[in-house]
Amino acid sequence: xxxxxxxxxxxxxxxxxxxxxxxxxxxxxxxxxxxxxxxxxxxxxxxxxxxxxxxxxxxxxxxxxxxxxxxxxxxxxxxxxxxxxxxxxxxxxxxxxxxxxxxxxxxxxxxxxxxxxxxxxxxxxxxxxxxxxxxxxxxxxxxxxxxxxxxxxxxxxxxxxxxxxxxxxxxxxxxxxxxxxxxxxxxxxxxxxxxxxxxxxxxxxxxxxxxxxxxxxx
Length: 218
Description:
Blueprint (H helix, E strand, L loop, with lengths): L3 E5 L2 H12 L15 E3 L6 E5 L4 H6 L5 E5 H7 L6 E5 L5 E8 L9 E5 L2 H10 L4 E5 L6 H4 L5 E6 L3 H5 L2 E10 L1 E5 L1 H6 L1 H15 L6 E2 L3
Parallel strand pairs: 1-3, 1-4, 7-8, 7-9
Antiparallel strand pairs: 2-3, 4-11, 5-11, 5-12, 6-9, 6-10
């Protein structure tokens, strides 16, 4: 039996599919045009499921997927609540998790209001600074929160920084660098050891890297 591989929708899917194709894993239909979310590989040896980023660790932890591919931001955000193995940095989807605020704005005294989708990451960052914050969870468009007076700053993923600048914000602190990672279900690491290792070896040869496996409780 082959592997069930959970892939993150969006940019990661776009950048990951060519890597998998070079490893001989190609979906039997186009994930970008098909309404299907479950695909067999053309060779018939693996299955690919396409899900939201935050759901990839859940599918992997519960064993629905043997392997997942998602961003480090997603892994960090689930924190210690889930258990799986983080085995490989695919070196795609490169960006940074940063704080950002209106240009030249000073931090207000007292409690800092922070708008973010990544509440766990933000909480940990400001706790390390012993800074008291009020976290405001938003699903998207964080950049407008300071402009409308909802927040003093934001914590978000920054790629080029163009969206920040277009909305009158500037990047402040880098919390961490983000890239795409491969995670593995703990049971699958034992029951499908050969298949998992074969996929990891093939991906390493494609990206030209080697990393040590580590328990991915983030």
